[in-house]
Design goal:
The protein is an alpha/beta fold and 375 residues long. The chain has 12 helices and 16 strands. The chain has a 7-stranded mixed beta sheet with strand order 2-10-9-6-5-3-4, with helices on both faces. It has a 3-stranded antiparallel beta sheet with strand order 13-14-16. The chain has a two-stranded parallel ribbon with strand order 1-15. The longest helix is centred in the C-terminal third of the chain and has 19 residues. The structure holds ligand T4K.
């Protein structure tokens, strides 16, 4: 099999024009205003509101802290249970635990890899206070079903939309569902501000609370009103983000071509499934997951290992499941019998290299390698 001379990673960051970024850095030097909600911060918050079509955007230094603050802002009862998915990045259950709340894992569905509403319903107890869904790989959660269940049981709904930048259901931003939605602007994300994140929400009453919690609870020079944290995005991050925002549409167009090529080339390989994106939903083009069915001679791990030999660094997002992590594996909800679909998906999933400047030629070669390995 051919081998790439340089490693091909699962993703590479989108970078702004260096000269343009230099001009932004000059402005930061001239103003000597480096952080604490400066001009670039304010500009990015404003632009994102328009870009995403949401009434409220609060920026953060990263997605994990944003999600931590989202749960804190809802004042959920201490020790109450938050139902979430095990098929996600470590940050999701960790922010539940850091808030003094208890993660309860519910199974996912095979088509979208997101929380199965019926599994959520079964996980509800008198101690449940919230549902934390993850729009994993940009596949939206079953928002209407989850929110109907939440309404019936008086629960809050929060979404981890780390992979769902600019996703829309119909013509409505993904950020319009649930009480709050987190976005991640980490270097590996479609839209990045080096590191960064945001909360999107509709309720104006949340705005002041979120601003307070993001800045140590400081209200004014002589008043601290809440137990906040340092969640502030700095000016360099915001300046980087402002320039990268201009590139999102172009990057998505490049990824759409790679997506189409991968789909075309991989769809006919026996034992390999390319998940179907739900109709009526705009794809964020954040990751390109495939599923490899385990047989006596083939498995996801065989494909992963053989590609690695060819210098193609795919990733097994999200294996192992969060329910197997040391802090969570003794939870009753972590039992494998409770999470059969999540366990089987975690065994089969592989995320392929997926970023605009990967190019069609390299993507085609990767697809051919997979065909060769699996034939
Ligand atoms: N919720 C969900 C569902 C998430 O997926 C994440 C983060 C969060 C919450 C938390 O959001 P943040 O607090 O991070 O904003 C990466 C990212 O670090 C992480 O942000 C992301 N999810 C996760 C899915 O992927 P790793 O440990 O896989 O990253 P790493 O360093 O192995 O990078 C992956 C590849 O990207 C590398 O092989 C090469 C490339 N890369 C990476 C970096 C950092 C670059 O080319 N340049 C870079 O600067 O977690």
């Amino acid at each position: 099999m051919k081998k790439f001379s340089e490693p091909i990673y699962v993703t590479r960051p989108v970078l702004p024009d260096r000269a343009e970024f230099g001009k932004s850095i000059d402005k930061i030097f001239e103003s000597q205003w480096l952080t604490n909600m400066g001009a670039f911060h304010q500009a990015l918050e404003g632009e994102l509101k328009g870009f995403l079509g949401v009434p409220h955007v609060s920026l953060f230094n990263n997605g994990a802290i944003a999600l931590l603050v989202a749960l804190k802002a809802l004042s959920l009862p201490k020790n109450s249970e938050v139902i979430t998915t095990p098929f996600t990045f470590a940050a999701t259950p960790h922010v539940v635990a850091w808030n003094g709340l208890r993660p309860v894992f519910a199974d996912i569905d095979r088509e979208t890899f997101t929380l199965d509403p019926e599994a959520v319903r079964r996980a509800i107890t008198p101690n449940t206070s919230a549902i934390l869904g993850v729009h994993v790989f940009g596949f939206p959660c079953h928002v209407d079903a989850l929110e109907a269940i939440a309404k019936e049981h008086g629960l809050q709904v929060v979404y981890d939309g780390a992979h769902a930048f600019s996703t829309k259901i119909g013509d409505r931003s993904i950020g319009r569902w649930g009480a709050l939605t987190m976005l991640s602007f980490h270097a590996t994300k479609l839209f990045n501000s080096l590191e960064g994140g945001a909360l999107l929400y509709d309720d104006p009453a949340l705005e002041q609370r979120i601003k307070d919690l993001r800045n140590f609870g400081i209200r004014g020079e002589f008043e601290v009103s809440d137990i906040g944290i340092n969640g502030k995005m700095n000016e360099v991050q915001a300046a980087f983000g402002l320039l990268n925002l201009r590139q999102v549409a172009h990057e998505q167009a490049l990824r759409a071509e790679i997506h189409a090529l991968y789909r075309r080339e991989l769809a006919t390989i026996p034992g390999l499934t390319v998940p179907n994106f739900p109709s009526g939903v705009s794809n964020s083009y954040q990751y390109f997951p495939i599923l490899v069915k385990r047989t006596s001679r083939m498995s996801r791990d065989v494909v992963y290992d053989r590609l690695r030999e060819a210098n193609v660094w795919t990733r097994k997002y999200f294996y192992p499941l969060c329910s197997t992590y040391v802090p969570y594996r003794e939870l009753p909800s972590s039992a494998a019998e409770n999470l059969p679909v999540a366990n089987s998906i975690a065994d089969e999933v592989l995320c392929l290299p997926f970023y605009g400047h990967l190019g069609l030629e390299a993507a085609g070669e990767i697809a051919s390698m997979i065909r060769e390995v699996m034939s």
